[in-house]
TrEMBL record:
<dbReference type="InterPro" id="IPR024925">
    <property type="entry name" value="Malonyl_CoA-ACP_transAc"/>
</dbReference>
<dbReference type="InterPro" id="IPR001227">
    <property type="entry name" value="Ac_transferase_dom_sf"/>
</dbReference>
<keyword id="KW-0808">Transferase</keyword>
<dbReference type="InterPro" id="IPR016036">
    <property type="entry name" value="Malonyl_transacylase_ACP-bd"/>
</dbReference>
<dbReference type="InterPro" id="IPR016035">
    <property type="entry name" value="Acyl_Trfase/lysoPLipase"/>
</dbReference>
<keyword id="KW-0012">Acyltransferase</keyword>
<protein>
    <recommendedName>
        <fullName>Malonyl CoA-acyl carrier protein transacylase</fullName>
        <ecNumber>2.3.1.39</ecNumber>
    </recommendedName>
</protein>
<dbReference type="InterPro" id="IPR050858">
    <property type="entry name" value="Mal-CoA-ACP_Trans/PKS_FabD"/>
</dbReference>
<feature type="domain" description="Malonyl-CoA:ACP transacylase (MAT)">
    <location>
        <begin position="18"/>
        <end position="312"/>
    </location>
</feature>
<dbReference type="Pfam" id="PF00698">
    <property type="entry name" value="Acyl_transf_1"/>
</dbReference>
<dbReference type="InterPro" id="IPR014043">
    <property type="entry name" value="Acyl_transferase_dom"/>
</dbReference>
<dbReference type="GO" id="GO:0004314">
    <property type="term" value="F:[acyl-carrier-protein] S-malonyltransferase activity"/>
</dbReference>
<dbReference type="InterPro" id="IPR004410">
    <property type="entry name" value="Malonyl_CoA-ACP_transAc_FabD"/>
</dbReference>
<comment type="similarity">
    <text>Belongs to the fabD family.</text>
</comment>
């Protein structure tokens, strides 16, 4: 499908594609589909050549898979491999795309804004800078459940005021589900306060406190690489994490990608935007089904469908083609 055809086809649909972020990786991802679709291994080979190490070997063996600098290019490549299979099978072009954190880069590649080679190099660097910005064990993240956004923000302010260090809302994932990030002791203080206020708190097994002010040094180092990378306007609108809307131009797009490192992911607003725009079907293009499960809770979403196994891919393809009137 040409760029123009993709753009025209996307405008007529009620489907959106979402791309997962770090945490969705799993050993052996896409192995089953790779046996059927040679394009998956081809996509991994293309990305591996660009970044200089074997992404498929990492994905299948698990060796280094949870190191941020490797996790990010592996996940991005897996998402693009699935996107290419979707198009190869005649899947519809979505009206909008969005990605959660790292997934925003996958969305930009799928939409034609970034080349796969440039994107894997960017996210490999992004992972390295994020990892080195905060010493191991200093930062932390936790999911706060059962409290509204305003209450979580209030508890973060309370915990920050009580001592040195900071903690902030990092991901607004859904109503009653906010992830906080910051200095480990401040995150633990918010967890305790959340429980005192009737909420739940779950420490996340991450090595990097993403989307908080501790990542500002990483963003400053990352900005020049973004400036030097060729980026075009997406052929399908990509809702960016910062602001939950599509960028007006490439300058704004680059600025949002830099700010994304230390500002919160506005996923709740992103999903609300998709609903307001009449989206009824959401396809998660990447390993796992974390984003699909979030979307299933929304009142106007008919189906939220993952793609990462043969049966899931077939179900999503048939469901969306029928819904869009492409097959009876």
């Amino acid at each position: 499908m040409s760029a123009k055809q993709l753009e025209q086809a996307a405008q007529a649909t009620k489907t959106a594609f979402v791309f997962p972020g770090q945490g969705s990786q799993k050993v052996g991802m896409l192995a089953e589909l790779a046996e059927q679709f040679s394009g998956i291994r081809d996509t991994f080979a293309e990305a591996s050549a660009a970044v200089g190490f074997d992404l498929w070997q990492i994905a299948q063996s698990g060796e280094g898979l949870n190191q941020t600098e490797f996790t990010q290019p592996v996940l991005l490549t897996a998402s693009i491999a699935l996107w290419r299979v979707w198009l190869e099978l005649g899947g519809v072009a979505p009206k909008y795309m969005a990605g959660h954190s790292l997934g925003e880069y996958s969305a930009l590649v799928a939409s034609g804004a970034l080349s796969l080679g440039d994107a894997v190099k960017l996210v490999n660097l992004r992972g390295k800078l994020m990892q080195t910005a905060v010493p191991q064990g200093v930062g932390a993240m936790a999911a706060i459940l059962g409290l509204d956004d305003a209450k979580v923000i209030e508890l973060c302010a309370q915990a920050t005021a009580a001592s040195e260090g900071s903690v902030e809302a990092a991901n607004y994932n859904a109503q009653g589900q906010v992830v906080v990030a910051g200095d480990k002791e401040r995150v633990e203080a918010v967890m305790a306060l959340a429980k005192e206020n009737g909420g739940k708190a779950i420490a996340l097994p991450v090595s990097v406190p993403s989307h908080c002010s501790l990542m500002k040094p990483a963003a400053e180092q990352f900005a020049p690489a973004l400036e030097q990378t060729a980026i075009e306007m997406p052929r399908i609108p990509v809702l960016q994490n910062v602001g939950a809307q599509a960028a007006a131009d490439v300058t704004e797009l680059r600025q949002a990608l830099t700010a994304q490192l230390y500002e919160s992911v506005q996923w709740t607003k992103t999903l609300q935007f998709l609903q307001d725009e009449g989206i009824e079907y959401i396809v998660e293009c990447g390993p796992g089904n974390v984003l699909a499960n979030m979307a299933k809770r929304l009142p106007n979403i008919e189906k939220a469908l993952p793609l990462d196994t043969k049966s899931r891919l077939e179900d999503a393809l048939n469901t969306v083609l029928v819904a869009e009137g492409k097959i009876a």
